Amino acid sequence: MPDDGDAELAEKPRAGVVTCPSCDLHVAVAEPNDAVELYRRHADVTGHDVEWERVAFDAEVDGEDVKTALVELGERHPDGVELGRLAAALTDSGVAIGDALDAVYDLRMSGEIYEPRDDHVLAV
User: Fold this and answer.
1) pLDDT digits (tens, 9 = 90+) for 55-69
2) How far apart are CA 73 and CA 101, in angstroms?
3) For the chain, which has fewer Cβ within 10 Å, the N-terminal or C-terminal residue?
4) Radius of gyration over alpha carbons of the chain, in Å?
5) What are the φ/ψ torsions at residue 123 (nearest 5 degrees)?
6) What is the pLDDT of residues 16-64, one digit of tens each?
7) Residue ranges of the alpha helices (H) in 1-124?
8) Which sign, positive or negative, has the C-alpha torsion 73, 65, 84, 116?
9) What is the reported pTM?
């Protein structure tokens, strides 16, 4: 018989599931940016990229261009698009989390996007 802790865990919202194709990592994340934190830790330790296996929130965009995706998502998230949400939106186009974050870094350094708060970005 499950205890109350199991019931509470089952009711908690999940943003989705992130996996590593190179090892047995398979983790449910509660918030989109939890996937980014997991990627950063996992890549630092193993050198592996992680990817979204399942996304449980609205994050659909057309194409694989990071800036175009950011502009599209920014219309729905005017206070800033979570990096995890952006990475999830690009997953269907085959863009890995690490590649999306690298592109965000390049766009930020070129002044095309800005970070209104930690791990949230918008196009200029």
Assistant:
1) 888 888 988 899 999
2) 16
3) N
4) 15
5) -75, 145
6) 999 999 998 999 999 999 999 999 999 999 999 999 998 888 888 988 8
7) 4-11, 32-46, 66-76, 83-91, 97-109
8) negative
9) 0.85
